[in-house]
Every structure is written in C-alpha cells, then in structure tokens.
C-alpha cells in the first residue's frame, strides 16, 4: 500500500505547460535556493504523507497535464504577517497522460491509485488531445 499522497492544483492563468515553466523560472516563483515554489494560504494537514514521495499535479485549462515531485514545505510569512505554506518542488515537469478535471478552489489530495500515468520517455513533446475529444473519451471511460 502506498504511504504517500499527492496534491492537485489549478495553474490559474496558464495556457500550456510552457507557460508554467516560464513562470517557475522567475525569481518571484522561486524559493531562496532557486527551486520552484507555489505559495498557498493553507498548510496541508497530511504533510508527512506528502513529503513521503508525493507530487503536485497541475491542471491547466481543465486538463491535468503534468506533475512535479514535492521536495519540502516551507513557512512563508507575508507582508501582512500571515503564515503561509510554500510548496517547494523539483524543477522537472513530468508530463502525464491527460485527464479532465473540473474547476475547484485551493488544492485537493490525490491518491496514488487515482493519478494518471507519466508519459513514456520520448512522448513528452506529443501534442495533447483536443479538449473536446479528451472530454468525450473521459465520459465514456476510455481515459
């Protein structure tokens, strides 16, 4: 049985994986050590499980498209004095088999059994299925 949990998060304002890579390369999106981070208001209650091998799965335009291994959770105190959580991840974006996701706020836990498989090496540059085709295949249970 898997002893870790993943997170799934919307990448708001992102049109494609390249946009996410570009954003994460900016100083504003990096931890002091240069690793990409995403700052969120809430601290995950399942921290130990996340840090035992979990990844953050990114949803771009309603489609779960890629993941990054979570390395640590850092405390960040904003200018307003409020404690926040920085999810610090490996810079490698691993493309996964696309899966449709409905909109939600914040982040959600994602069990290992429910995660889409990584794309095999060499298929990372393939164009994703058109959204309507992807949705239709998901509705009939093919994806």
Explain briefly what this protein structure is:
Helices cover 15% and strands 34% of the residues. It is of the alpha+beta class and 143 residues long.
Description:
Helices cover 15% and strands 34% of the residues. The protein has helices at residues 17-24, 47-50, 131-139, and strands spanning 6-10, 37-40, 55-60, 63-77, 83-89, 94-100, 107-110. Strands 1, 2, 3, 4, 5, 6 and 7 form a seven-stranded mixed β-sheet that branches. The longest helix has 9 residues, at 131-139. The mean pLDDT is 88.
How would you describe this structure in keywords?
seven-stranded mixed sheet, 143 residues, single chain, alpha+beta
Described by the principal axes of the CA atoms, the overall outline is: globular
> What is the N-to-C succession of helices and strands?
EHEHEEEEEH
Q: Work out the helicity level.
A: 10-25%
Strand content: 25-35%
Stretches where pLDDT is under 50 for at least 5 consecutive residues are none
Oligomer: single chain
The description of the largest β-sheet is: 7 strands, mixed
Radius of gyration: 15 Å
The structure class reads alpha+beta
The number of helical runs is 3
The number of E-state strands comes to: 7
**Arithmetic mean pLDDT:** 88
- Give the end-to-end Cα distance, rounded to a whole number of Å: 24 Å
Layout of helices and strands:
Blueprint: E1 6-10, H1 17-24, E2 37-40, H2 47-50, E3 55-60, E4 63-77, E5 83-89, E6 94-100, E7 107-110, H3 131-139
Parallel strand pairs: 1-3
Antiparallel strand pairs: 1-7, 2-5, 3-4, 4-5, 4-6
């Amino acid at each position: 049985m898997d002893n870790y949990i993943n997170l799934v998060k919307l990448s708001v304002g992102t049109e494609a994986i390249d946009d996410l890579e570009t954003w994460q390369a900016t100083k504003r999106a990096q931890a002091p050590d240069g690793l990409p981070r995403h700052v969120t208001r809430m601290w995950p209650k399942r921290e130990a499980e996340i840090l035992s091998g979990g990844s953050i799965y990114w949803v771009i335009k309603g489609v779960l498209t890629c993941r990054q291994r979570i390395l640590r959770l850092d405390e960040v105190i904003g200018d307003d004095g409020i404690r926040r959580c920085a999810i610090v991840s490996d810079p490698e974006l691993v493309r996964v088999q696309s899966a449709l996701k409905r909109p939600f706020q914040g982040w959600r836990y994602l069990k290992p059994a429910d995660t889409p498989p990584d794309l095999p090496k060499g298929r990372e540059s393939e164009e994703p299925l058109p959204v309507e085709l992807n949705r239709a295949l998901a509705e009939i249970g093919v994806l």
